Amino acid sequence: MSQTNFDVAALRSFVTGMDLGSFAKAADRVGRSTSAVSAQIRKLEEQVGAPLFRKAGRGLGLTDAGEVMLRYARRLVELNDEAAFAARGTDLEGWVRLGLQEDFAESVLPNVLGRFARAHPKVRIEARVARNADLTARLDAGELDLALVWDDRNVSMQARRVAGASVDVAKPPMRWIGSDALQWSPGSDEPLPLVLFDGACMVCSLATDALDRAGIAWRVAMTSPSLAGLWAAAAAGLGITVRTPHGLPPTVRTLEPGAYGLPALPSLGLTLLRASSTAAPPVEQLAAIVVEAVKGYTSTSTDTGHVHGMAAA
Fold this sequence. Notes:
44% of the residues lie in helices and 19% in strands. It has three domains: 8-87, Arc Repressor Mutant, subunit A (Orthogonal Bundle); 94-171 and 268-299, Periplasmic binding protein-like II (D-Maltodextrin-Binding Protein, domain 2); 175-259, Periplasmic binding protein-like II (D-Maltodextrin-Binding Protein, domain 2, 3-Layer(aba) Sandwich). The protein is built from ten helices and twelve strands. The protein has 313 residues and is an alpha/beta fold. 35% of the residues are buried. One of its GO terms (molecular function) is DNA-binding transcription factor activity.
């Protein structure tokens, strides 16, 4: 029986198309024509021996074989890039200081640190998990080289964007989050109980602004300095909180749009900021791994099964 050898370039186009929701956009990203990417996908289906896509409304969704192939494609592309990084960076040394949002620390950080450490064993990483204000302040103070932050477009961050020291990573949707233990209904005379971060919080402000525009009365039932505290309070039914659907513990769940009469929430951009537009090679290498890991995580842990912009192969 002949051995099947998948083309890494085709796998990259497949993964990129799924991440971007369009193979036309993927063609631009990978530097190929749309017809060339279509040919790559058809060849991939021939090698798999099964269709990767199915009709889903006006677009395309993944078949069971497609779902399996996407998981392996991500791993193969990651391993390819890790090998390239390792071969080119065997002599890299020094420190890289990385800051991450708590939402992505548990799910993304182990993968990022592991991949980077295998590729560059002589480079040490100092990681900090914190909220937006702390991360941007430390970046400004020169205490971090990289920071994954919510893009609030303040003056300092805007200046870095102009200087080319940032990368737009993803735009996760915000969701109302609660549990079946919540003792509140829209018809009650009580304001909606909220569980929020203490102090300034951009995500919390988005939620309360949306409630104010919808004319829904609310009160702060509990504040917490940590994400774990928000999950615990929401699980206990003390109130509803708001966050992305990524990394939720099994004790809470996202609420369906319109549940409890709650308004829709916007998406919020995630940006990877560098302390300088001319970063050292270890910083650039780590930045590339962080961007790839977060994009992969945010695209697979939400409903991204529909792909527009490409006809069935």
